[in-house]
Amino acid sequence: MWLGDMGDFWVFGYGSLMWRPGFAHTEMHKARLHGYRRSLCVHSFVHRGTPGRPGLVLGLDRGGSCIGLAFRVPGDLNDEVMAYLRERELVTNVYLERRLPVRLETGEIVDAVSYVVDRSHEQYAGRMDVEDAALRVSGAVGQSGANEDYVVNTVEHLRALGIRDHWLEGVARRVTPSV
Question: Which end of the chain has fewer CB atoms surrounding its CB within 10 Å, N or C?
Fold first, then answer.
């Protein structure tokens, strides 16, 4: 078993896992992950773009820090939750499954299952400034809809949770000025 013992474990969400975790949990706290930042650094060839006009979706990339949510999962759900997360997050293997320390809003530091971008993967888009990211997002459409909607929806969900991400908000303002 990947996590070792059958005790409770934590999962860190920085994007859609925050508002749509899809698994049972007993606690949820705002948490900060140091050493990684939320970034539109993953090319989307299916859901938010096409191979000819890729969109961008979120990944955790090296550098900075990221505020997200940490979910405490009962140990007896380990196999079920890890199978669900791997099916959801590792479809194209652009993310690497890691166990990383996050600081809960309570001050406690816990190890949490996290998914970080694989910089060697073909879908890795690299680090971009706000303008470059907005240009790639604008006009990209995939099976799940317009890339602009994905970015704006993400910013709105983050704000509803009381989380600010100024870089992502800047991208959202450039693709939809009313944000």
Answer: N
